[in-house]
Hints:
The complex is a heterodimer of chains A (about 250) and B (about 220). Helices cover about 30% and strands about 25% of the residues of chain A. Chain A has helices at about 1-25, 35-40, 50-55, 65-70, 75, 90-95, 115, 230-245; strands at about 30-35, 95-105, 105-110, 120-125, 140-145, 150-155, 175-180, 185-195, 205-210. Chain A is globular. Chain B is built from 4 helices and 9 strands; from the N terminus they run H-E-H-H-E-E-H-E-E-E-E-E-E. In chain B, strand 5 and strand 6 (about 140-145) form a beta hairpin. Classes of the chains: A alpha+beta (about 250), B alpha+beta (about 220). The interface of A and B includes residues 11, 99, 101, 137 and 215 of A.
Amino acid sequence: MFVVLLVLGIGSDLAQAQSASETHPDWTGYYTLAGRADLASAGLKQDAPGEELNNLIIPHLQPWAKARMEATDGIADDTGQVCLPDGIFRYPSMAGRFLWLQERGRIVMVFDNINTAGVRRIYLDAPHPKNPVPSWNGHSIGRWEGDTLLVDTVGFNDKSWLFGGMEPHTEEAHLMERVRRPGNGAFMEISITVEDREALTSAYSYKRYYKKQPDSAEMAEDVCNEDPATWKQYRDKALKRQMDRARQVK
Amino acid sequence: MTKLAAFLAVALCAPLSRAQSPDLEGVYQSIPDGMTLPGGRKNAGSPAAIQLLPAAAEQAKAIDLKQDPWKMCQPVGPFRMMAKEQTKIELVPVSAKIVMLFEDLSHGMQRTIYLKRGHPAKLEPNWLGDSVGRWEGDTLVVDTIGFNDQTWLNEEGAQHSDALHLVERIRPVLGGQYLEYKIAAEDPKTLAKPYSYTRYYKKVDGEVMDDPCQDE
């Protein structure tokens, strides 16, 4: 009888654990920005890929924000040039490679370029703090709606840019994401909406797709400080090109 | 009866074997040096106490301390990072690996400890090396090799070579409220003898705030 009760007790624990894991899909894995060919085979495509994202954002800037963008010397003012954080608006949309780690009560996104993109922690079924300390990546909370994860992020500092054209945002920036995995789990789709009543005339939205890498794939170490001079040279070149083009956008 | 016995063996042993590997998930912060925990547990040793071979000692004397990776917001490597007072780490165990994150992300970066593979035959040297782990009872044993020569072993400028080999032993103590962390370093090219130190990390509540180097 004791043995039966013991077995039933263990069975109950197992059932509880299984039930918890069945409630929400586990998307743990390594993801990289999906290429055009991979997406085409699934009938998907990136919205405003690469630098085209500037064209999508700029028409939403308030006049002061557009003026600031045009007056900004990105090469000097861009923290990412010197291996400091860029915030999360830029790197994930341009070249994102990240580990998606699901824990009890939270999801952790670890970017390979940790110096500039850092780590995001999405607290599940929890409220934002009343007065979050402004930070580069803000404060993220999430909740599941069926097989879609809804993520809400506030509490940004105003030190980062919305994208490489040096589009500013304020501490009022509000990021809303809907995350799901189309293509039978081959891709992670993040539908992104950004609003900022102080810097934008209206919200803008776009989608990014990331490809789930095989379980055997490992995210490589990426230390931008390894060779700061070369890194800055590379960023200077890429950023100047982007800023020049962004300033042509009306 | 045999079938029942087999069923019970499976039903009972599966949870027990899982229980042997403790769940290390959580946020931990190193306790101050000088603090003593129940059972006389306290931090012991320090990277400053390593003994260098003569050539390595000469090299350290000649080095410009302004080039310290710590001062340049570069990764400092596990041997140095884990000894720092107030270091806050987050352990995220998922499937076949444990990811170690640091609140001081510029100096600590992120480490991935692979549980189901050995070191690759060919390793590309990097700042944090290649880490593989295995469980010995309730202790996670982490073996790391494959370092580049960019990090220092201490703030006195002690260099290491590409032969640096770290073995960390991590286990929960005091009912899981603390981690006991022991690290041993050997490097036959620079260290006169292997050296180890011990730190205790307290499990803490709350959120980890990224603390990039520029805010210092």
